[in-house]
Amino acid sequence: MTDFYFVRHGQTEWNLERRFQGGQGDSPLLPTSYQDMHRVADYLKDVTFDHAYTSPLRRARVTAEVIVSDWQDAPQLSIRSNLLEVGLGQWEGELTSQVAKDFPKAYDQYRNHLEEFEGEEFDGEGYTAAVTRFQRLITNLVQQYPDGKVLLVAHGLILSFGLNALLGTARSEIRQRGGLSNTSTTILTTEDGQHFDVKAWNQTDYLNKEQDDSTTI
């Protein structure tokens, strides 16, 4: 069995301001987010990981580096572009409220009809391309670590899309499962790389604080 531990990056300035970041935007991490990273590390300290992977974007990479640096027997940390956030084109850096005004149809698809969300209207990457690259990495890791434990640090949208795809969730029902908060941990297991079970979803109890819209996607 392969156990996957997925951690979303620490909270950033744009998260707090409710701006889209996407695959190119990369605002600074908030000073308070570092304390949350250490709390993730403490939560996972008893897990022996075979390897750790992170998105190349700084907000995820630094989160991963802080977490593994807290462990005495730290796993090797590697960067994988498959874990990049979903590219959001013209939305990146913009306030969500402004995007809702400028792209009402696409924003409604993003919020309420993900089965129609593909990003063409705003030069974005869209659901299909993002999930395809994410699943390709997971398939390879299942083959590489058939009895292992793997840590992956990435972003809210790619994790929400990718994990729900692994679980066979219909695109129209993704929002019903609930979003993923900054520095949350989600744990999925698989025996064969085809069927996945949820051991924990958006676990944030260790952060000892209430989550809100600025921390969850």
Automatic annotation (TrEMBL):
InterPro entries: His_Pase_superF_clade-1, His_PPase_superfam, PGM_Phosphatase. One of its GO terms (cellular component) is cytoplasm. Substrate binds at residues 8-15, 59. GO terms for molecular function: phosphatase activity. SUPFAM superfamilies: Phosphoglycerate mutase-like (SSF53254). SMART domains: PGAM. This is Putative phosphoglycerate mutase. It comes from Convivina intestini.
